[in-house]
Each structure stands twice: as C-alpha cells, then as structure tokens.
Batch of 2 targets.
Target 1
Amino acid sequence: MRLIEVSELSKYYSAGLLKKQCTKAVDGVSFQIDRGETLGLVGESGCGKTTVGRLLLRLIEPTSGDIFFDGIDITKLSREEMRRQRPRMQMIFQDPESSLNPRMRIGESIAEPYRLGLKGRMKSDEIEDRVMELVNIVGLNPEHVNRYPYQLSGGQNQRVVLARILAVNPEFIVADEPTASLDVSVQAQILRLIMDLRNEFGLTMLFISHDMEVVRHMSDRIAVMDGGRISRFMNPGSKNIC
Amino acid sequence: MPLLDIINLRTYFPSPDGMVKAVDAIDLQIENRERLGLIGETGCGKTVLGMSIIRLLVPSTRVQGRIMYKERDLLSLKEEEMRLLRGREIAMILQNPTMSLNPVLKVGDQIAEVIMHHRGLDKKHARAMAVEMLAAAMIEEPARRANQYPHELSGGMKERVMIAMGLASKPSFIIADEPTKGLDAGTKTEIVRLIRDMTRGRSMLMITHDLAAAGEICDRIAVMYAGEILEEAPAETILNDPHHPYTQGFIDSLPSRGLHPIPGSSPSLVNPPQGCRFHPRCPRATDECRREHPQMIELEKGHSFRCFLCA
C-alpha cells in the first residue's frame, strides 16, 4: 500500500531584482513510498535532497507538484488541516542539539507533545509514565530526564529527539542525515536504534544521506539525486556505486 | 632520532567536577617524513594532544612531560620562542574552516598574511604566492578565488584554503585536525587525495575519526581512547589486522564493515574506569582487565597495543 506519492515536485528559488536568477533546487521529482518501506535519498551536498525532505512535510511550500500522504494531497490543505496531519509525519534533523530547546530539561522536551494535547488529555503521572517508557525504548537512563541538552552527548541528544518523535506515534519519518554529526561507533548505535524502532513501530521512512554505505544499510530502495532531479533508482544490493 | 618525540605527556584541565585528564601519559614518536594518523572518537583527547604540541591551550591547562622537537623541548620554550616556531616550523590546519577563516577578509589576503609574517615577503609578492598556493591546492581560477570572501566558497573549497594556508609557510611539521570533517563523499575523496599529495615527503600528525582517510594518507596509525593510546601500528595493520578489541570494534562499526556498534559510551575523562579504560565496553573483558591497568606491549616492531588479551 502506498503511503507517499510525489509527482512532478519542484521548488524554485529566485533571487535578484534586475538580474533575476532562478535556482531549481528541486526540479520535477516523482517517487512513491510504500507503507513500512524506507526509501533512501542519496546525493552530494546541494543536490536538493534536504529540500525534498522539507517539502514532503510541507515545512516549505512547493513551486509546483503534488504530494499525496495516505491519499490526501497535502499541498492543498489549509494550515489548520495541515496541523491536524502533522503528528503523523515527523522529521529527524542532522544536528540534535539545535532541534532541542536548550532551556528545557530532557523529560520536559519529551513530554511536550503530550502537554500540548497532541495525544488527547492526559494526567501528569500518566505523562510521566509515558516519558519513562520512551526514555527506556530509546536506550537512555532515567537520570537523563532531569538534564539539559548541553549536558548530554550528541548521540544521547539524538536519542532524545527519537523519543520525542515516537511520543506522537508518527507513521512517516523523514530522517535528514541523522548521524552526520556523530562518531562512527555512535553512528552505528543510532542507526541500529532507528532500524529497531522502524521495525517495532512499522514506520515508513525517507532516509536522506550523502553516505552511500549508510543509505545501503538503511534502505529498501535508493533514489539517487543530482542537480535537483532523481537520476535513478537502485537496489541497495546492487554493486555499482555512483 | 624521531623528529617529534612525545614523552609521558599529560594534559589536564580543571573543571567543576575535577581534573579532566584529556591526555594521560602519552608516548608517541613521529619520524622525519612520516605521516601519523591519530584516530579516535569525539572527546578522546586527540585534538588536545595536537593543541599541546603547538601550545594553543588556555592558561589554566596543566601540561606535564616532554615534547622533543628537533632536540628541543617545546614545553620548556618561552612563549616568544614558541611563537617563532608556531605556524612557521610547525603549522596547524584547524578543523572547521567556516569557523577558522576570518569572515571579513578575502581568502587571498588571509593566506598572504601568513606568508608575509613567516617568510618576510612584501604584500605584493605574498599575494602572488597566495594565488600560487591556491593553485597548488587545486582551486580553479585561483586569482579570482583569492579575491573572494569565505562565504562565497563551498565547504570543500574552504578546506582547500585551510590546507593552502597551513602549508604556505613551508612548515617542517604539520598538524591537521579533522581535515575531512563535514565534507560529502565526492569532495572528501578529492581532499584526501590533495592532502596525500601535498604532504608527501613531509612529517604530519593527522587527527581524525575517519579511518579510511587516515589509511589513504598515513604511514602509521595510533588509536586513542579516553586519553590514552591503545594501539599503534602501520596503517595497513590497523585496517586489516587490528588487535585491540576497541580498534576492532571501531572498524566493525563502520558502515562498510557491517555497522556493528560498540555497546555503551565513551567514559568520563575525570574519573576514567579502573583497570583497562575500555573494559566496561569490551566484549572480552576479564577480572584482570577490571583490576589492572595494561601497559603498551610491543607485538612486533612497530605494532604495539595496550591489552592483556591480545598479548
């Protein structure tokens, strides 16, 4: 079953008043992602892969093209309608530190979606139990809950980000270079954790990276992007690396 | 006689929790015309080791031991004497070019500044030489690029500028700190090749967590963990026949080697674990490893490690 269907998606940026310059960041991209599938999106910096990720969650507006999420064309939704869909789709950013509020304790950060009522009204102790459960799922220790992001390592903060994302039970996750700022052994831990969570919660994923080896490990199918376009699709098992 | 001989170096920082033992009793030699890769993860102390050599640490740092360079102990030099060596004899290619370059100066002027200061050339000649250095760093249209500001250059190009600047004074010893960090695959391949070619026949300490890059460039690799060297061997041996469980785990966690993580996380440098510092994460740790602190053992010439199990 299709969860994501993107057709002829484009994003152009124009700059300059007199000498109008147009940058085609994404130029007519089409692909589908089945439910439970992970599509890897690989390409060099500046090829437009992050822009595709952001367009998919409508963090930026496309110039043209359609994005169907579970049969709904999200490019046509009003802000209010979009807000209701948001919890179903989440993003993991490259730098965990800048995705967390530096003035919130880890526990508060994870509890925030519940406090905002995204999962309905919940009692405080119910929220606390849920936070502890999530902390455990992502491999953090209970004592981390009272710390601030600056007191944790990059890998631990990325675990916090994952816990916060899981709090809203998303169906679709865009992971944009989630381990680019981490060491190899921590990268391996976080990627393994993402794989486990994906299998456990049946998540659908767009996994963006410039590292072909990483994308091979994480993806069921790979789209190679170059200059704003998808130049080809490939199998993670196939030999020829671009 | 090695060009650089680090003897029992300890670099400690005071912190509210106690002394941070970033470099703890390290011995390391680099021969003339040798390139040594220092591999390790964030927070293991590898950058502090580099900064200890070139003496760019905050005044509250406690540095003990000896760093013999051309028969002089760098640690006992006066600051004025050190300043004559720094950048001229011993140059550093700093990590993160975006942060390290001056955003309000043209890159050509930044390189010319190094040449004027260290080689005594006038501005006009220094500027011409800066353009030559950019050309040597394989930057296309070097004269035009020299007139640009850092924000006008891509990440890979800024790294080339850093390399050109580091080598502009023709140093006899180079410290390169994470020169491939944050670059995408294609650019990284080019930068690795550039460093390899530009440092051929020179002496270098390359600090990195990119084992593949170290393997391409360096003759020898030393593996650092929690302030100590755990294994040291010719680059090929580290890549293909590592003995220490940490080195093995590090290699196995690479995506190309199966993405098998090492459990746990790096220890605190304030209170490092008793016994072997890697024992809490080591799959093969024994009682001896928990109790005793292993010393470096030489397996064969040029290959030593700090482990009871692989002896």
Target 2
Amino acid sequence: MSPRNAARIAYLILIYGFLYLPILVLIVYSFNDAKYSLEWRGMTWAWYRNLFDDPDLLRAALNSVLIAALSATVATGIGALAAVALYRYEFFGKPLLQSLIFVLMMTPDIVMGIALLILFASLSLPLGFWTLLLAHITFNIPFVVVTVSSRISGFDRHLLEAAQDLGATEFQTVRRIVLPLLMPAVAAGWLLSFTLSMDDVMVSFFVTGPTFEILPLRIYSMVRLGVTPEINALCTIMLGVTLILILIAQLLLREKT
Amino acid sequence: MRIREPFKLLAVGAIYFWLTAFALLPNLLVVIASVLERGSDEFVAFAFTLDSYRRLLDPLYLGVLLDSLGLAAATTALCLLLGYPFAYLLTRMPARWRPVLLLLVIIPFWTSSLVRTYAMVILLQTNGWLNQILLGLGLIAEPLELLYTEPAVIAGMLYALLPFMILPLYAALEKLDRRLIEAARDLGAGWITIFRRIILPLTLPGVVAGCMLTFLPGLGMFYVADLLGGAKTMLVGNLIRDQFLSARDWPFGAAASVLLTGLMGLLLWAYYLSSRRAGRGALP
C-alpha cells in the first residue's frame, strides 16, 4: 500500500471512529456491572431487567411502536400514491406539489413542530395520540415519496402501455403492475418512516401532551437528570431496533427489479 | 381531471389534501400568529403588531440569535471540512466496498440524534472516556471540564449532523464525470485549479444541500444545547421552545420561527441557483 493510500484509509477510519466510538462506548457500558464507575466490572443484564420492570417505560415504548406503525402505514399509503401520481400523470400544480414535498423534507423539525402546535391549538384539538399521529404522518410522507420515486424513475413504461393496450383499467394497471414492481421501495419507505417516527424528539415534543408519553421524550426527560446505566441499556435497545430496520430497508432498496 | 380515472383523483387528492392541511395551513398560521399581539387568556390576541419582530432585534435576543448563528455556522463549517474529503475518498474506494462504506454512513443518519447526543455526554463527562484517555496519556494532569461548554455543543451537533453533510456530498461527487478531471490534467491544470474550476462548481449543489441540512437543524436542536451546553448555551431552538412552553409568548416564538423559515428560503434559493449553474434540474 502506498503512503498516499494509507493516509486515505487512515482518514476514513478516523471519521468512522468518530461516528461509531461514542455509540460503541454507550453499548459497552449498558452491560457494565457498575452503577457509576467507568471501570469494567463484568457483564450484567441488570440494567435491561430494570427497564422491563418499569411499567411507565413499557407503556411509553408501546405508545411509540403504535404511533410509528400507524403513521408509517398511513404515510406510506399517501406517499406511495403521490409518487405514482407524480410519475404517471400531469395535473394542475404538479411542480408546486413537488417543491412543497421537497421543502417539507428540508423544514427544520422545530419549525414543523410549532407550526403543527399552532394548527392544533387553533382547532382546539387536545394534544395527545391524535395530534401526535397526524404530525408523524406529515413528516414521514416526503421520505416515502422520495424513496418510492427514486425506484419508479428506473421503470419500464412499456409494461404500463402494454397493460392498457390489453384493456386494463387504471386501477388494475396500478394494482397488478405498478404496485408489485414498487413493493420493495414501498416496504423500505414504510421501514424508514417507522424508524423516523420511533426516533423523533423535536416535533413530538410540541404536539403531544402528558396523557400520551412516547419513548424518545421519556428518554429525553431521563437524560436531563443525568447518565445512568438504565438509559445506556434503553438507548442500546433503540439503536438495535433502528439498525435492524435500516438494514432491512437497505436490502430491499438494493434488490434489482 | 377526468372522472373516469378515480384512481388518479384519489392519488392526487390525498397528497394535495394532506400537504395543504398539515404543511401549508400550519405555516400560514405561524406567520399570522407572528404579527398578532400576545394574549392574556388565549395564546394570541387578534390585533396586528410587528412588536415580536422588533423584539428579535432587542440586544438580549439578538445576542442569542447571533450566538446561535455562530454555533450553527461553526458546526456547518466543520462538517464541510471533515465531510468533503471523506465523501470524496468514499467515491474513490473500490466499487465493491462502497455499498458497505456508504451503509456505515447511512446508519447514523437514520438513528436517533437524541441517543447519539447522549452518547456524546457519556464520552465528555468529567469522569468520562475522553478525560480518562487524556489522563492516561499524561497529556493533562486533571480532568477537564468538557461538558457544558460551547465546544461541547459544537461537538454534539457535529456528531449528530455529520452524516447529513456527507450523504448529499457523496451523491454529488459520485455523479462527477471523472473524464473532466482527466481532461483538465492533460491540459496541464494543477490540483488546486481542478478543484476550484471543475470539482467544486459541479458539486456545489451537494455542498449547498449539505450546508442546508446541517445549518438549519444546527439552529434548532434545543436538546443538544440542553444536554451538552447546560443552561449557558442557548440556541434559537431553545428560545423558540421556551416561548411556547414556559414564557407563553406565542407571537414571539412564531416570529423566531418565521426567521428560521426565511433562512431556509434563502438557502433553498442558493441551492436552486447552484444546481442550475451546475447544469442539472432544479429540484429532485
């Protein structure tokens, strides 16, 4: 290996180290059998067991999974249909719609959070399950549109024309040809939405009330009180779930049609 | 829109409805709230005033704004400085490694930035890893107070946002036509000229997109300032949050949010211009 290549690889390793070292430390210490010490005192599952003995925490986790699954499902429905429509049809205000989706994706979370808070307040909707669900669907939609659109652009238009020449209705064309071809991207979009929703702090912070607590906000309030091995364990579980979902999503996106 | 295509009506209608109801309308309400007076019973009173915007220029709040802009700018600059060579090197790696190397960047991109901020807290604690290593190496005699400082906030934001810079840069660099560089080299251009005249202009949309994705969240991530900066550091995000949660001054919080939206507009415009200059479509 030439010195030039060695330097390049060293730089890559350095940045990857920066990205992964803190996470690695967090994971390792979630298993450390010592409450306050940095020294390695042996392996324990105690912190994980403590988590499962905390009913409030479990409820928050269930709430999070519920919101993530529901919002991912609705967002995938709307987002995938939108991606198909943007690819297939010409309609009034199409460029505007495309820019709007792009702007929505770029919008800082805090701006979206307070905008939705003001909306819900002016409608006098009580903050809780429903407001949280509506907010999560909203920030998930653009990611589904982008994921599905990127797959659609590599599509063979002749397949659709052939179906229509053979007398398929628009609905049949979409259901029998477009959707099956898009399935991997739709599934990836769902998984990524689920992940985003499970991890969101900023938007949720503004649009949920004390009646409906979710996991990231619970973690946030725990973390503000200080570092404990239980939070290490909880964060490790969150990381693990996210990691698995991203890996599946990436596999789905890579698979050739 | 023809009636005999109910599917088209459904597909177009659903997204139109959702974006109008939950993206356009709420942002319109923010603008309206920002020019109303603060209410006593309700959150706003229906009387027009530009008072909230005037208060943004109050030295107290202007200080917070400028500090926050400085922190976000420093974070963005560091992300770009570290991310650009990194993204470039990624595109030069053997093709069979690239998917895995890219996936390793995507994983932190999708994982919770709160969890990663917390990981940073563990690392920077007084009795944390970094101090232990520095002590062990004999570089310092006593543990440093790393946590609750501005550099800690920058480190936290850098950590949370670096993947957001790398990914658009990688996408732009990957599209770069290598033949242009070879042609320039054959014609005798040096590396600096090649970078300045070819690589940078062609990847400028990626640079602007990356800066937008790091700078804007860098202004808003109130939990990074909370967890790593203590009470000392305040971002625009903390300011906005406090108006809605404790100060109950919604018009002022809305005005600060309109300011962020305005900044986003400026950056989007820069993105549009740079991608037009680089000869690609304006929006993906």
